[in-house]
Design a protein that fits this description.
By secondary structure, the chain is mainly alpha-helical. It is built from 5 helices and no strands.
Length: about 120
């Protein structure tokens, strides 16, 4: 039961952080080519999960409850892969296939690269 509460609390905080970053991106980019806020959240979330997952695996720095709070709850609420899929669909549906493809490729390449970088960084600590 405690792990469920930890996941819920982490998800609550992660969702709020995602909302703030997305809102800031809309203020920064008045007419975005594609959803930059979602890209920023997904790439930074991938970097964090690579770093923290790597530290957790190699250094055992998290209790199971903290792992549930941070990796499952916070990062699960923070990253927006379902939103990502929906936004790409909507951009493509509007006939903006180049923008949709660019968004898709940037998320995949930068996301995977950030997980690798974060995991590699975890070996430095």
């Amino acid at each position: 039961m405690i792990k469920i509460l930890m996941v819920g609390m982490g998800g609550f905080a992660g969702s709020i952080c995602r909302y703030i970053i997305n809102d800031l991106s809309h203020k920064f980019f008045s007419e975005p080519f594609f959803p930059y806020g979602t890209l920023a959240v997904n790439v930074s979330g991938c970097l964090l999960i690579g770093l923290l997952g790597g530290l957790s695996e190699t250094r055992q720095i998290f209790t199971p409850e903290i792992r549930a709070l941070v990796l499952i709850g916070f990062l699960g609420g923070f990253t927006t892969f379902s939103t990502f899929g929906y936004e790409i669909f909507m951009v493509a549906r509007e006939g903006q296939f180049v923008a949709a493809l660019a968004d898709l490729m940037l998320h995949l390449i930068l996301g995977f690269g950030s997980v690798w970088l974060g995991f590699s960084m975890s070996k430095l600590f």
